[in-house]
Amino acid sequence: MPVPDKKPGVKRFGVLTGGGDAPGLNAVIRAVVKAAATCNCEVLGLEDSFDGLIEPDRSRLLTPKDCIGILRIGGTILGTTNRGNPFAYPVDTSGGKRDYSSRVVEMYQQLKLDGLVVIGGDGTLGIAHQFFKMGIPIVGVPKTIDNDIVETTNTFGFDTAVSFATDAIDRLHTTAEAHHRVMVVEVMGRYAGWIALYAGVGGGADVILIPEIPFSMEKVAERLLERERRGARFSIVVTAEGAKPIGGKVSLIREAQGEFVERLGGVAALVAADIEKRTGKETRSVVLGHLQRGGAPTSFDRVLATRFGARALELLLAGEFGTMVAFHPPDIVAVPLEKVVGRTRNVPMDFDVVRTARAMGISLGD
Ligand code: F6P
């Protein structure tokens, strides 16, 4: 359905979701739409990330009515893609090679937008920053279950992923205890160990392996045997998908290929086989995978996402473009996008939760 003409004197903002989904995306969209309605602004929802600004008829006006009931729903009503970088696909034209970025700018103007809310992880925010430099007024909203975006203490989606993983570890505890087994649980997080660390501490794991601390299998086995000597007949190991042995490499399901980034996975199976060999204890592995990204956002993520969305609209109205909303407890602040792009927020070695884990006798594999 064609987008209706803009009413005179009314500002129209676009909103899009990019990269992998995370619980809370809909809560941000809803917050932007509801906050816009209170200021007599229009919101245009753009489908499948920047595709909504490349292909015709991939956008629609969103009103508060369209957002009824979506606060508690995972996924994104706008759709998303992690292969939608308009700067990455040059096309041959009579005027030479062009990428899709100028098409995005043209479409932005045709749709008579006054600014864009871009909800995404580091990749999408990097694209947003490039478009900001090309003149599009943009405010970014940090999204990812991995919690690895710099300049914000939290991204929405992380709390939900941790909550799910903690619940899974609780369930694995009972079966591990019944069968006197070691259970190795692989969680997501890419090259950062936030999910593993929080779910491991919250779930009472005995060993937590994170990318920031390369592990020694000897040390891991030692800790499990020590537990055995103390009378504990089962153990729980939580490993981040990006954890790697000292001097070794991350475990991959697929190498990077063209527009596809490398796909991490498989470390739990390797660790489990090694534990069984070294300790003689029956060991099983479980990969939580995309279950961590699905389902309803926790109340923490709903509130954070709602605050991010409302603040993003405020920043657009105030003309504070080229920024990202960020959580600096207890406030939501604006940080320049250029301070965010191309960087990853890893778990610092002196971080309190790392020290707490060690104080609880949890082995970090080192
Ligand atoms: O960045 C979020 C994330 O879920 C990572 O934790 C994981 O490595 C990756 O995305 C999986 O991506 P895909 O959905 O493309 O398999």
The CATH topology of the largest domain turns out to be Rossmann fold
Distance between the termini: 58 Å
The profile of the biggest β sheet is: 7 strands, mixed
The share of residues in extended strands comes to 15-25%
Describe the structure.
With 366 residues, the protein is of the alpha/beta class. The chain folds into two domains: 12-155 and 297-329, Rossmann fold; 163-293 and 348-359, Phosphofructokinase domain (Rossmann fold, 3-Layer(aba) Sandwich). 33% of the residues lie in helices and 19% in strands. It has helices at 25-38, 101-110, 122-133, 158-179, 194-203, 217-229, 267-279, 299-318, 352-359, and strands at residues 12-17, 42-46, 59-62, 91-93, 96-98, 115-120, 138-142, 182-187, 207-209, 235-240, 252-254, 263-264, 283-287, 323-328, 331-336. The strands form four sheets. It has a seven-stranded mixed β-sheet, sandwiched between helices. Strand 6, helix 3 and strand 7 form a beta-alpha-beta unit. Helix 4 packs across helix 5. The longest helix has 22 residues, at 158-179. It is elongated. The N and C termini lie far apart (58 Å). The model has no long low-confidence stretch (mean pLDDT 95). Bound molecules: 6-O-phosphono-beta-D-fructofuranose. The site of 6-O-phosphono-beta-D-fructofuranose has 13 residues, from strand 12.
